[in-house]
Amino acid sequence: MKNIAYIDGQNLHMGTTRKDPEWRVDLRRFRIYLQEKYNVERAYYYLGYVQNGNQYQQLYEEIQATGFILVFREHNAAMLGTKKGNVDSDIIFSVMKRLYKKEDFDKVLLVSGDGDYKMLVDFLIEEKKLKKLLLPKQRYASSLYKVLGAEYFADLSSPDVRRKIEK
């Protein structure tokens, strides 16, 4: 199988580091986990990008070095601290574009608990193109996902998964 992963980087980071219990994802281990568990061939890691944001260069390099394809949504420096990455529409557009162009892949794996993806998730389920929705922390995920069957999502903060991907 050739699956594609889309990671909402801000959602993954905030979902694991800002709420109890706090923990950090080891990106190298996470990329291996996606490949071995879900047959992810390509993994796109979406982030907001700030012009002249040199302090983030090390993070960008780490993401790429661990095997993720880094995709930016550009923001200007005046927005720093006032706006999150806001990559939702970029991810949705990219998935839909790949489907429309009938690119060669089997299924989509989405990493986010953001309810803005609910229509996309429903469509992917309907088209039999959703591999899995990985929630950074299930208890903080959008209530819109409560109607999904357990076969469609997994909680990255569950002890067995955390053990595999935690820093």
Identify the notable features of this structure and list them briefly.
167 residues; alpha/beta; six-stranded parallel beta sheet; 6 helices; 6 strands; globular
Quickly give the structural class: alpha/beta
Strand residue percentage? 15-25%
As a percent range, the share of helical residues equals 25-40%
**Count of individual helical segments:** 6
Amino-to-carboxy terminus distance: 28 Å
- Major sheet summary line: 6 strands, parallel
**3D shape:** globular
Q: Can you tell me the residue ranges where pLDDT is under 50 for at least 5 consecutive residues? A: none
Mean pLDDT, all residues: 87
Major sheet: arrangement of strands? 3-2-1-4-5-6
Number of strands: 6
Taking all Cα atoms into account, the compactness measure Rg is 15 Å
Secondary-structure element sequence?
EHHEHEHEHEEH
Q: Would you kindly provide a written description of the structure presented here, covering whatever features stand out?
A:
The longest helix has 13 residues, at 88-100. The protein has a six-stranded parallel beta sheet with strand order 3-2-1-4-5-6, with helices on both faces. It has helices at residues 9-17, 27-38, 57-65, 88-100, 118-126, 159-165; strands at 3-8, 40-50, 69-75, 108-111, 130-135, 153-155. 31% of the residues are buried. It has 167 residues and is of the alpha/beta class. The mean pLDDT is 87. It has six helices and six strands.
